[in-house]
Amino acid sequence: MQQRDVIIIGGGPAGRTIVHNLHQAGRNLSVTLIKDEKINANRCAVPYGISGQKPIEKFQVPNSLITDFGAELVVDRVTAVDVASRRVRTGQGLEFGYRHLVFATGARPVIPPIPGVEAPVIFAVRSIDDLARLRQQAAKSRRAVVIGGGYIGVEVAVVLRQMGVEVTIVEMLPQILMATTEPEFIAKVTDTLGQNGIRILADQKVVAFQTRSDNGLDVMLESGLALPADLVVLAVGVIPNTELAAAAGILTSRLGIRVDDTMRTSAEDVYACGDCAEKRSFVTGAPTRGEFGTNAVFMAKIVAQNILGNTRRFPGVINANAAAICDLSLGSAGLTEKMARDAGIDAVAGLSTVLDKYPMMDHVGSIDTKLVFKRENRKLIGGSFLRADSCTAQNVDFISLAIQMGATIDDLMDYQYATHPELAAKPSDNIYTFAAKDALSKL
Prior knowledge:
By secondary structure, this protein is of the alpha/beta class. The protein has helices at 13-25, 64-67, 128-139, 151-162, 183-195, 243-247, 293-307, 337-342, 392-404, 409-414, 431-440, and strands at residues 2-9, 31-35, 40-41, 60-61, 71-75, 78-82, 87-90, 95-103, 107-109, 122-123, 143-147, 166-171, 198-202, 206-211, 217-221, 226-229, 231-234, 238-240, 252-253, 256-257, 270-272, 279-280, 287-288, 321-325, 328-334, 347-355, 366-374, 380-387. The strands form 8 sheets. Strands 1, 2, 5, 6, 7, 8 and 21 form a 7-stranded mixed beta sheet that branches. A 5-stranded parallel beta sheet has the order 10-17-11-12-13. The chain has a 5-stranded antiparallel beta sheet with strand order 24-25-28-27-26, sandwiched between helices.
């Protein structure tokens, strides 16, 4: 058996971030990272690799991001963890002892138990192998059906349509993007997708996949509608990989491996972070979803500092997110108005629509903003944006920091900002102050 200071299971952004932070600390710890993918994909970028316009290597995460930072890399699958004896065992028969163990095992795509789902023209969107197979099938497909109308599903649909493929999105919920997007903005996104030739069937459930004689599929809906397809993409969410931890006796839930605010699990000197770990909302403190690469990085930094003996606590996820859809960009941070009300929060929301530059300039667009405040203390708890350019992430980041810092309606009414004819709204107009003013009028 080989002894290590730190064993990390998983090679995604969480695992790599821990490697980098431990290396930067200069403690000369012995670190081994074990992952079961020979080469990892940059998962968020996978939809953009389907067209084949760039080499598939562009969408890979090089293993040098592990090995160049002082860690040993083992490409293998961990099959057992014994927390009593502090050791892990792999499928190739390797055995390691550890002082600290980290589960960064990520998540896997949901494969719904629908009859016919094993058909060879049905694909998930996760790994480099998925991307390679998607590329090959998309290049020879005329009709595609995307199951799931979240960010990944919509981004895949846009790329396929740009390739000339006829695309239909099937969504179980009444509208697409409901998990992250305010309802006031969804209609504009839906219209834009329709104008770009993408068909949306919301409030529809897939009940079967039936193989046709031409090797394509009929996607059968509960309504009785049959959608012919040469390619089907499953984008209905992910499941945290908790089985290994659970088998070791570590506490888990349906949302992931249970951790405290130092990212420690129920086992001594064992941590979890990233998609495999249960998350808590920064705003409500309640368990929540949050499978974003950024969350994995934030949590991993806390793990690394606690391994180093520097007690750090994770305040919870704000779930800042952004997406590009055709010529729009959109995103949110914190809670939507519905999330707040579902959590029992007495919330008040403010809306604004502001030009993105001075009105006399060329190519003027608009920015739609919705801010959500807690009525009781006037604190900002959420913000969402939709604009006709690629700059939404900057707005989301600002609101995420404002939530983290405990900003109120009054803070946003009084904050000082820049202006420029080509770069921002005219001096009297500001997306945040206008939305805060609208919320203030409702208090």
